[in-house]
Design brief:
Length: about 350
């Protein structure tokens, strides 16, 4: 009878309310401006890297192919969560439908999982480049790079499909307030009325196996890289190797640290305030920092970006010049039609 009453009291939730960024109107407006600026800078930085890599023939090699894939993921990650957050801050529309919440979580986990696998692939690429430089182009062919990149997306897709199906087959009670600014696994588990132990166990096991596998590949790659660098006789070669790998290692530390704190832990340790801060680190700040880290520490990327900026300035200047010339040749301002011809 008790079980029947519990089932009777459960209601079908058709929408959720994102209450993670509630506050006074002036605070909400300040946060809106802040996150909008961060989002636009993130978009501009990653788009610039993508354009630089695609247009500069000097960057058409496996390392920059993977960097372009990382920039694409860094474009998608904040785009999944930030627009809805900005809408909630400016218009106070914090309601998100059940379907939109499910899709938001699916795409977020998909992108996060894909990026974890991609960082491991990038570590292996650096290992081959430093430890087997003469065989690098033969081993890391563009065909292999394409297969590895597609493999990261496929693995991220199925990982996300599993996690999303586990979360959204749970029952939710009358309370539909999500204590976060987007739909994510920890707050959804905390909101559910169903027993979540078995699902948590599956989520932690899958995330632990896949995440630790990617981390082991990254760790082993950098152990071999470190040993190879220490054996180099030239200080210039060592500096170049450390400079090349330093950017990737910085991104790995930022991303792994924040995602592990968010997902690889039981729901009993869930803290809404702490979770919001950590999720902003990997969901908003990391995509912002990645272009800065790679562009500031990589001379080739900096040169390519400068070239892109120069080309854009030239195109804009030419357009302004042509529009000004067209204005001078307006028939109403000309002495005769022959001048305008």
């Amino acid at each position: 009878m008790k079980d029947k009453m519990q089932k009777f009291n459960l209601s079908t939730v058709s929408e959720f309310v994102l209450v993670g960024l509630s506050g006074a109107p002036e605070v909400c407006f300040f946060l809106f401006v802040l996150f909008l600026i961060i989002y636009l800078v993130t978009m501009a930085g990653n788009i610039m890297i993508l354009v630089a890599i695609s247009t500069d023939t000097h960057l058409h090699n496996p390392m920059y192919f993977f960097l372009g894939s990382l920039s694409l993921l860094d474009l998608l990650c904040p785009t999944i969560t930030v627009p809805k957050m900005l809408e909630a801050l400016l218009l106070e529309n914090k309601v998100i439908s059940f379907t939109d919440c499910m899709l938001q979580l699916f795409f977020l986990i998909d992108v996060v999982g894909t990026e974890i696998f991609l960082l491991a692939v990038m570590a292996y690429d650096r290992y081959v480049a430093i430890c087997h430089p003469l065989q690098y182009m033969n081993i890391m062919s563009m065909k292999l790079c394409a297969h590895l990149t597609i493999g990261t997306w496929v693995a991220g897709f199925f990982n996300s499909l599993l996690h999303t199906s586990l979360i959204f087959t749970l029952a939710f009670c009358d309370s539909n307030d999500i204590d976060q600014y987007y739909c994510d696994i920890p707050p959804m588990l905390a909101l559910s009325c169903s027993p979540t132990y078995s699902r948590e166990l599956v989520i932690l096991t899958v995330a632990g196996v896949l995440g630790s596998s990617a981390f082991v590949v990254t760790l082993i790659s950098y152990v071999y890289i470190l040993l190879a660098v220490l054996c180099m006789n030239s200080s210039e070669s060592r500096h170049k190797a450390f400079s090349t790998c330093g950017s990737h290692l910085t991104v790995v530390c930022l991303f792994y640290g924040t995602t592990i704190c968010t997902y690889v832990r039981p729901s009993s340790t869930y803290s809404p305030h702490q979770d919001r801060i950590v999720s902003m680190l990997y969901g908003i700040l990391t995509p912002l920092l990645n272009p800065t880290i790679y562009s500031l520490r990589n001379k080739e990327v900096k040169v390519a970006i400068r070239r892109v900026i120069s080309q854009v300035r030239t195109a804009l200047t030419r357009k302004e010049h042509l529009s000004g010339f067209g204005g001078l040749c307006n028939p109403s301002n000309c002495i005769s039609t022959t001048v305008c011809d």
